[in-house]
Design a protein that fits this description.
Layout lengths: L11 E3 L2 E2 L3 H10 L6 E8 L2 E6 L2 E5 L1 H4 L2 E2 L1
Antiparallel strand pairs: 1-3, 2-6, 3-4, 4-5
Length: 70
């Protein structure tokens, strides 16, 4: 298991767990980051990520990406 910000671009990963405060977990869940969901890193820009989750592209900060374990 590793944080999402270490994932290779273009490869599909299964989300193992989402960490953080309850408010952060809820926000990430609303964006589609749920356990057993699939996520793919599209691009990394200065540590921030553009990911494909639930067939939608989402930009997240590197701090948020560290809370998503794949």
């Amino acid at each position: 298991m590793m944080p999402l910000n270490f994932a290779d671009p273009g490869k599909d990963y299964t989300i193992q767990r989402v960490g953080g405060t309850p408010a952060v977990k809820k926000h990430l869940e609303e964006l589609g980051f749920v356990a057993d969901g699939t996520v793919q890193v599209i691009n990394t820009i200065n540590g921030n990520l553009i990911v494909n989750v639930k067939e939608t592209r989402v930009a997240i900060s590197k701090e948020m990406a560290q809370k998503i374990m794949v």
